[in-house]
Amino acid sequence: MKTLVTGGGGFLGSHIVSRLIEERRSIRVFGRTPRPELEDLGVEVVCGDLTNANDCRRAVAGCDVVHHVASLAGVWGKAKIYERTNVEGCFHLLEAAKREEVKAFIYTSSPSVIFDGQDHHLSDETLAYPKSYLCHYPRTKAIAERMVLACHEPDGMKTLSLRPHLFWGKGDPHLVPRILERARTGKLRQIGPGGNKVHMVHVKNAAHAHLLAEKALIQKSEAGGKAYFITDQKPVDLWLWIQNLLSAKNIPWDPRPISSEMAYGVGSCLELLFKAFFLPGEPPMTRFVARQLSTTHTYDTSLAQNLLGYEPIVTMEQGMQELLEH
Q1: Which residues in the chain belong to E strands, given as ranges?
Q2: What is the DSSP letter of 281?
Q3: Strand, helix or coil at 174?
């Protein structure tokens, strides 16, 4: 089977590609930039843009399986930019996949698609999409997820959506480096009183879930048309985890807590200022970030365990040891 991975040069995508290489699969990667390091490993690379329907058709042509990992992430930016990449891009890819009679389409979503700013304690997939969102990333990811699930056909192209929560691990270009940079520059403040629990997912566990999802789609008709939470299954105390990470990296940090209400208010004001004066970059605080950092969000992975056979292959302890050695 020929397998397409969009965003195959990214953090999660590269781990999915590595697993497929181990299985000696025929692999194609679709992205905006050349990847000679992947071509050296025998991976076919197609350069193009998700927002271009012809590029998507070229990428999908001849493929049996699609792992749609690529998306525009972030907490700030114009609606039309997120809509073009995350919604229109997903639509073009789905249309191309249907045209090519792809067998399995696995979409990389996010638990943020159901984040309503409230605490989520071991919530499962029955949690409804919120009526409104605090930024465009989760809103557009939710639209795309619903499109993907609506395209599921038990006797045709089978689809599902994975919701891995907070990628981390060696080589992470986003979460950990951002925490370290903000702590070093004195910009990291604890939001809320602390004690809020979160689930994370090691990037190798997320990649493992993608391969399990592919096999389940092909072998089990009941696995399709559903969304699945994917985590390390062992929640962490967010601010204690950050404190321990910084201590291990010998970075001094004074939490200087501020209330979640104050952070939310500051985020609202900064968002208005950045929009009104077209300021570059992103606000140092937003409403979405204020809520994410001060609430509990843990998720039940029973559905993924039962229908996909998912269990983490990297423990929190193993992942931390690898991370701290890096």
Answers
A1: 2-6, 26-31, 44-47, 65-68, 104-108, 120-123, 158-164, 167-168, 197-198, 201-202, 227-230, 236-237, 297-299
A2: S
A3: coil
Cα torsion 177, 276, 288, 225 to 10°: value is -100
Q: Are strands 297-299 and 120-123 parallel, antiparallel or unpaired?
A: parallel
- In the predicted model, residues of the chain with pLDDT beneath 50 are none
Q: How far is CA 159 from the centre of its chain?
A: 17
Residues 188, 197: Cα–Cα separation, whole Å: 18
Q: What's the maximum distance between 2 C-alpha atoms anywhere in the chain? A: 57
> pTM of the full predicted structure?
0.97
Among residues 95, 30, 104, 42, the alpha carbon closest in space to that of 69 is found at: 30
pLDDT at 326 (0 to 100): 65
For the chain, report the end-to-end CA distance as a whole number of angstroms.
Answer: 35
Domain ranges in the chain?
Answer: 2-167+201-231+298-313
pLDDT at 213: 98
155-187 pLDDT, tens digit per residue, is 999 999 999 999 999 999 989 999 999 999 999
- CA distances in angstroms from 166 to 5, 23, 183, listed in the order given: 20, 26, 19
Catalytic (active site) residue 82: no
Does the 2-167+201-231+298-313 domain belong in CATH 3.20.20.100? Answer: no
Rounded to whole angstroms, the Cα distance separating 53 from 219 reads: 30
Catalytic position from the list 82, 107, 133, 137:
137
Q: What confidence tens digit (pLDDT) does each residue in 82-93 have?
A: 999 999 999 999
Distance of CA 280 to the CA centre of its chain: 25
φ/ψ of 71, rounded to 5, equals -165, 170
